[in-house]
Specification:
The chain is α/β, with parallel strands linked by helices. The protein has helices spanning 3-11, 33-38, 63-66, 85-93, 100-109, 112-115, 130-136, 140-148, 175-182, 210-221, and strands spanning 74-80, 122-125, 161-163, 186-188, 198-206, 226-234. The structure holds zinc ion (2 copies).
């Protein structure tokens, strides 16, 4: 350990980002072993397309994807959206603890979800509307894309997808209402377009999937060759 790191550990001892337990020293991810063990990675058996987890059996297509209703080629989420990940994501999103991003990035990069993705031509973060972006000061999906895919940094198009209509918060809406709420909410603003290119969409949490469905539809209409989606967490 360098002298500087030693001094830092004494002056600013590292704490678990989720439960504040004192950690021996600063090492990513900033989570205690108990919180790491409570993370639920989303692994096989999954739907080969939308990534919906199954209770048992082998990977196969779910009914929806089998019927050809999914506008994307692959969706993969690293973890189930439950504690301690909820706290971690909330700290980054609402508590502005951007130091948590490095931890989320390490967790994502070590996940099997990340290794299932193919190399994209472009990475598009799911956007916030301008007003919400100004309130929050950052788009968490863009920051996540940067910390999860540092090797593909030059492929990230920060404002490739724009939110042109400020939708009401999705939280209390049903699936059908969510889709209606999002209709016409996004537009594409990629220099050179997405025609014939492989796209990776990135978002923090997948809930009903209506946001990524709407964004994927736009990409599909614009003739993207392939659309994959990565989210850090998925609500089950
Ligand atoms: Zn902890
Ligand atoms: Zn599926």
């Amino acid at each position: 350990m360098s002298l500087l790191a030693g001094v830092q550990d004494v002056l600013f001892p590292a704490r678990c980002l989720a439960c504040e337990t004192l950690l021996g020293r600063y090492r990513l991810p900033l989570l205690c072993s108990d919180c790491v063990s409570r993370l639920v990675p989303l692994v096989s058996p999954l739907c080969l397309c939308c990534g919906m987890p199954f209770a048992a059996g082998e990977d196969h297509l779910c009914g929806n994807c089998l019927a050809g209703k999914s506008p994307f080629d692959l969706v993969r989420s690293a973890f189930s959206y439950q504690e301690p990940l909820v706290t971690l994501i909330h700290q980054v999103k609402f508590g502005r603890r951007l130091t948590g991003l490095a931890t989320l990035g390490v967790l994502a990069r070590n996940s099997s979800a990340c290794s299932s993705l193919s190399r994209p031509d472009l990475i598009l973060p799911v956007p916030l509307h301008g007003r919400r972006l100004r309130q929050r000061g950052f788009n968490q999906s863009l920051l996540l894309a940067r910390s999860c895919f540092p090797g593909w940094k030059d492929r990230i198009v920060a404002a490739g997808l724009c939110r042109i209509r400020n939708t009401i918060p999705q939280t209390n809406l049903s699936g059908k209402e969510r889709r209606k709420n999002l209709k016409g909410a996004f537009c594409l603003n990629v220099p050179g377009g997405v025609d014939g290119r492989s796209i990776l969409l990135v978002d923090d949490v997948l809930t009903t999937g209506s946001t990524v469905v709407e964004c994927s539809r736009i990409l599909q209409k614009a003739c993207a060759a392939r659309v994959e989606v990565f989210t850090l967490a998925r609500a089950l």
